[in-house]
Amino acid sequence: MATKKKSGASKLAVWIIVGLLMFGMIGFGAAGFNGTQRSLGKVGDKTVSISSYSSALQNEMAQFQEQIGRDITPQEMQAIGLDQRALNRVVTTRALDQLVTDLGLSAGDARVREQVVEIPAFQGLDGKFDRESYAEVLQRNNLKEADFETSLREDAARRILREAVLTGVTAPEAYAKALVAYLAETRDFSWARLTQDILVSPAPEPREEDLVAYHSDNPAEFTTLAAKSITYIWLTPAMLADSFDIQESDLRAAYDARSDEFIQLPRRLVERVIFPSQEAAENAMESITEQSVTFEEVVEASGLTLQDVDLGDMTEAELGAAGPLVFSLEEPGVIGPAQTDLGPALFRVNAILDGNVQSFDSVRDQLKLDVALDLATRQIAEIAEEVDDLLAGGASLEDVASETDLQLAALDWHLQTEGGISDYEEFQTAAAAVTAEDFPELGNLSDNGIFALRLDGEIPAELQPLQSVRETVAESWRAEQIQQQLRDLAESIAAQVSLDAPLASFGLTENLQDDMNRNDTVDGTPPALVATAFETELGKAAVLDAAEGVIILAPRAIRAADFEDAQVKSLIGILGNRIDTTLASDVLEAFSNAARSAVDVEINPTTLRSVNSSLLGGG
Q1: Which letter does DSSP use for residue 123 in this model?
Q2: Which H, E and C letters describe 453-505, residue by residue?
Q3: 312 phi and psi angles, rounded to 5 deg
Q4: Measured on CA atoms in the order 43, 46, 50, 56, is the torsion positive or negative?
Q5: What is the average pLDDT across 184-188?
Q6: Residue 212: in which H helix or E strand, if any?
Q7: Which pLDDT band, with edges at 50, 70 and 90, does 25 fall under?
Q8: pLDDT greater than 60 at residue 23
Q9: What is the SS3 assignment for 518?
Q10: Is 403 found in the same domain as 496?
Q11: What span, in angstroms and rounded, lies between the C-alpha atoms of 592 and 550?
Q12: The pLDDT value given to residue 151
């Protein structure tokens, strides 16, 4: 009897189900955390198994750890709320299972059997379903056949329900068109910058009351940053590098070890076509020379693709007997025939890469520094053990500095501190987190250095008195006055701008920007420039502040999206698919939440805490 082939998506779905079930139960046991308890509670009439929660929790953790690029601790996992997210997912799934049961939906035995027999883990050496392998795999992973098949049946029924819910869930095409109309619209606009040199009047001088008022109205500008008084010790490879006496033999050995870096032979980016005979190769070369065919057409006639004939970058020696001929080309082109181990061939050189040979003497200083830094790194690794022991024994930073090569220093640190050890992100992070209760601990720097720090005190933010910042206040006041004069002038000009009276008619240097879309930027202008151009009515002008002076801009033309354009049509399709996917996800989430709210949920908190403790390595 003919059997219906399953799609790749269906196979993937089945594998995911099996993987999650097995992953959740391996090392945990189908019997649960205490050997007898198998349930966290119930959702409606459906049992919430410990294994399903275990699988969901470990899946949540794996996904989150992949996103952040590191493992998380159980404490972090609970603080983030991944355990609650996993529980909510399992409860929602069981609520849907209850709804499926209430609706009378079910997957038949034949459908479950199709899924089981297609799983490779259950197949024998002949590629067919093997009953003994099936039982053995499930037993090895503490799974009962009935439980496993029930899970497949429930998952299939949920998919039937999901497909029924999402059938016909599509957004109107007009929605995608409206978004594309917004995104694909372009504008032409002009802009001009007004700076202080355009003003007729000189910069004003502030009166005493002006300074007092400005100082009072702008306290943040004249308030020192809150800081921490920090004492620290540190040592980096660069601090020790000069203390080593590097032997000439060590430099020679380092040069030889890095010969690939310092001795780079000339190379060619090469493609090669092999022919069955010298005559065939010569005929192909003649045709290429006469331009009756192209190299690409010769490759295609050979039944190959350009990817098939691409050799990459090759040295003359790597090309063997053909090397001298290929390297005789002084510019990219086709050459041949040349004899190779595979027969006569034509070569196309796509790029000529010059070699670069750096002599020992030319890199001697670099080698000396690198060798010294390497030695310093090793020495610091040894020193670190001694420092760690001293700090653990209660030694102060001053004591450590006196007994080791680490240097003692202090600074008033804040988030904007730069220079020295503050240029290391590791120090910045430690300084931001340190408290008066913390004991100094050894930390590592990005260049293989080490450090430790201690908080000596907190320095609160303080408003500097006017008399100590008088000149700074005066400069800021003058800048504000000049900016206001420029803004007033720009607004008076903007009021007169029209399509018939462009910016250039007012004696301004006009910059033209054509065919700009909403995501474009213009170098040297505020980020809001293009957005403002799209917000400004055609024939009008707008004014915005810039780092230097102010800018007037005026739209010159508006171009609506061309819905006959191929790229615009493609964009409509892409956005339409994304909108449908998002809409379907929202509908399914709302439906799932409704199903969950329609059933009673009973989760035993004591059992949940015990399960979390067992899963997360707690007590």
Answers
A1: B
A2: EEEEEEECCCECCHHHCHHHHHHHHHHHHHHHHHHHHHHHHHCCCCCCCCHHH
A3: 80, -155
A4: negative
A5: 92
A6: helix 208-217
A7: very low
A8: no
A9: coil
A10: no
A11: 54
A12: 81
Q: Which residues, other chains included, contact 255 with Cβ-Cβ below 8 Å and sequence gap of 6+?
A: 262, 360, 363, 367
Given a contact cutoff of 8 angstroms between Cβ atoms, the answer to whether 95 and 103 are in contact is: no
Q: Do 271 and 314 belong together in one domain?
A: yes
- Asked whether the predicted pLDDT for residue 542 surpasses 50, the reply is yes
Query: What's at 215, amino acid-wise?
Result: H
Highest mean pLDDT pick, 30-39, 132-141, 173-182, 507-516: 507-516
522-526 contact pairs (CB < 8 A, 24+): 522/191, 525/191, 525/551, 526/551
Q: Which residues pair with 558 in a beta bridge?
A: 187
Residue partners of 24: CB distance under 8 A and separation at least 6: 51, 52, 53, 54, 55, 56, 58
How many CB atoms are closer than 10 A to CB 284?
A: 25
pLDDT value of residue 229: 97
- Indicate if 276 and 344 belong to the same structural domain: yes
Nearest to 53 by CA among 82, 85, 95, 86: 86
Buried b (16+ CB within 10 A) or exposed e, 336-346: bbbebeeebbb
438 and 312 inside one domain: no
When mean pLDDT is compared across 57-61, 458-462, 550-554, 615-619, the lowest value belongs to 615-619
Domain identity same for 422 and 347: no
Per-residue model confidence (pLDDT) at position 617: 58
- Other beta carbons within 10 angstroms of residue 553's beta carbon come to 25
Same domain, 406 and 302: no
Domain end call among 513, 530, 559: 559
Distances (CA, A) of 136 to 117, 130, 145, 319, 547: 14, 10, 10, 55, 73
Secondary structure class of 38 (helix, strand, coil): coil
β-bridge mates for residue 555, sequence order = 189
Instruction: Look up tokens 């900016």; give the residue.
Output: 483
The answer on pLDDT for 4 being more than 80 is no
Domain boundary among 437, 459, 481: 459
Q: Could you tell me if residue 495 is inside a domain?
A: yes
Total number of domains in the chain? 4
- The answer on 144 and 272 residing in a single domain is no
Report pLDDT digits (tens) over 268-287: 999 999 999 999 999 999 99
Confidence (pTM): 0.49
Residue 1 counted as domain residue: no
- Is 15 inside a domain boundary? yes
Nearest-angstrom CA–CA distance, 547 and 526: 8
| Closest by CA position to 502, among listed 540, 550, 475, 531 | 540
Cβ atoms of residues 107 and 160 within 8 Å: yes
Helix (H, G, I), strand (E, B) or coil at 69: coil
**DSSP letters for 274-293:** E-SSHHHHHHHHHHHHTTSS
What number of other Cβ atoms are within 10 A of residue 90's Cβ? 22
In the chain, what are the helix, strand and coil shares in percent, each to the nearest 5?
55, 20, 30
Are 400 and 227 a contacting pair, CB within 8 Å? no
Please spell the DSSP secondary structure of 220-245, one letter per residue. GGGBPPPEEEEEEEEE-HHHHGGG--
Whole domain around residue 511: which residue ranges? 186-217+470-559
Question: What pLDDT score was predicted for residue 160?
Answer: 82
334 — pLDDT class (breaks 50, 70, 90): very high
Look at residue 253 and tell me if it is in a domain: no
160 and 27 in a single domain? The answer is yes
**Calpha distance 372→428 (Å, rounded):** 27
> For the domain that residue 324 is a member of, what is the CATH number?
3.10.50.40
